[in-house]
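Give me structure tokens for this 136-residue protein.
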Amino acid sequence: MTIFSKIIAGDIPCHRVYEDAHVIAFLDIGPVSRGHLLVVPKEVKAQLHELSDESAAAIGRVLPRLARAVLAATGATAYNILQNNGALAHQAVMHVHFHIIPRIGSAGLGVGWNSGTLSASDASELVTNMQAALHA
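Here you go.
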């Protein structure tokens, strides 16, 4: 059981901003910036690809509204939405969750981007394999 499961169950208190049948959103107690919000499906799955379509759709419906609320409450005009999957991708709590992190001055998420290149042959192979996986 993760800390998020305990929050969902009501065993650990949180600064709840939003809740419905599928999703809970609350302030991060270790915020990167003021207003840093966590958006967590109530379905207990470690990684995004494991979520049911219903839970994924519920998160998709509420993320824009929550982002607007964060912007309105903080005065920020920019933000990041971050979602990590697996320890190698810096996931610390093994329960799907999204971070809405407002960028306020220098406070917020710093992102390094190590761009590579995409060859035509690799792109063709990836497209074919991904499309096959979508139809499996």
